[in-house]
């Protein structure tokens, strides 16, 4: 038999819809940073306490996210991915507006805490991507989409956040007459961010598919409306003829028969036979926390801790005044005892980070997918996690270079190393974490746990870095915070050596429908020699049209021939003979050693049940 292979393709449309839903979140998150110190000052906070309250405001966001991440994940496992994603987007939009209209420090902190508590979509969208793309060969490209969107949003968010903050004072001719913007000087960036959320909510409601197995077959009125809106732009398809409809029904019956027979015999099953079937009940925590999942969660939390801490500490280090006259300073004892930074301004720091983000965007989309497909996800993770401690150890020594230009070139080179490592590390960890789940039904909860744990790391990392930086500068050792982060990075580089790259949920075989398209019969006589004749009008009419399962009216029913025909249709190398079959149609027929029972009352009406040791596919 001739066999043709059909390459799997990414669900580009659904990934695009998810990306549009995701885009508003990094914009709302990162647009706060440029004006946060100015906003805190406007609440009559002393200047020497602004940095402290800015850190508290940022930390409360991560801690709130950690407190609710698991709840969002379990809600998505119970109610579905789509409704929870849309609900979380709406909550983030409202709490971001509340933050923009804050009139006091306490109100701003509460609003920021509520925004963090609403920010559970990172894990749920990651779960949706895993359910859309379960095949390992496509996961590197699929799982690079959401980090790419976050990078793009993080590049544009600070730009318009700083430009639109306090517009009445910065642009009095355009906004000076607005009573709203004079009373609420930091509302405009959040109003613009809310516009992105409204667009994302509309796109998600109209076009996003449900991916949770127990909810995906339900009626989705949003997608019904979306199809109606798009109908004028789509060519009208002719209605299928009657014989086509009968052929589809017959093919559905035969496909069900092949699935039931394959399941009952144990042949052609998925590569991960230990996976648990989908259940509508929420998973227990014992199901979520497997050994491999726990190792992945530890690696992920350590990555979040040291990576975010480095990104927040580096601007402080570059802005810190340089140390002069090191040769005559008794407090300097090279190569380890010294203090000082670059002494550059925020504009130059922002330029370096903008270039850093653009380079990361290209690595994310153009380099990461082909490299991980060629070498594997786990080997790439082992390599890049070893790059972090090297970059961290070298960072403080860039301040010893003689000129500002050489200092900035050196730190940018280190940033490129760190960029390469972080672009690979987080998606690789996400893929490994996804594939470590024992069932698709635990993915929402598992990714919710990952969101909570990583949020704790993002809150603890900057606090540890800031505390050690203060101690290091006071003691004359500016290397202290960087080498502390290198210690955490070294721990994160050790844990991947105990990880195992699991098979994922896609399996190694194509679906039955794909098999029908990819394995056509070239020898009609070979199939017709095993044809089964059943005196049932719809099946008999269909048998004259279909070469895959021809049925002729009037011939006796032969169980051995039916067994051989089903074996050819399913592409199995061996199909056990039928043990017992009775006719006429409408009586129960026991098929195969697995105990498969089928009750056929007519075309397309088939019911299967399995005895002990069997699997049920509905």
UniProtKB/TrEMBL annotation:
Residues 14-504 form the Major facilitator superfamily (MFS) profile domain. The chain crosses the membrane at residues 84-102, 142-165, 186-208, 349-368, 380-403, 409-433, 440-460, 480-500. The lineage of its organism: Eukaryota, Fungi, Dikarya, Ascomycota, Pezizomycotina. InterPro entries: MFS, MFS_dom, MFS_trans_sf. Its main location: membrane. This is Major facilitator superfamily (MFS) profile domain-containing protein. SUPFAM superfamilies: MFS general substrate transporter. Residues 560-570, 598-608 have a biased composition (Polar residues). Residues 250-264 have a biased composition (Low complexity). It comes from Lepraria finkii. Residues 525-543 have a biased composition (Basic and acidic residues). It is a multi-pass membrane protein. It is found in: Membrane. Pfam families: MFS_1. Residues 236-284, 508-618 are annotated as: Disordered. Residues 509-524 have a biased composition (Acidic residues). Keywords: Membrane, Transmembrane, Transmembrane helix, Transport.
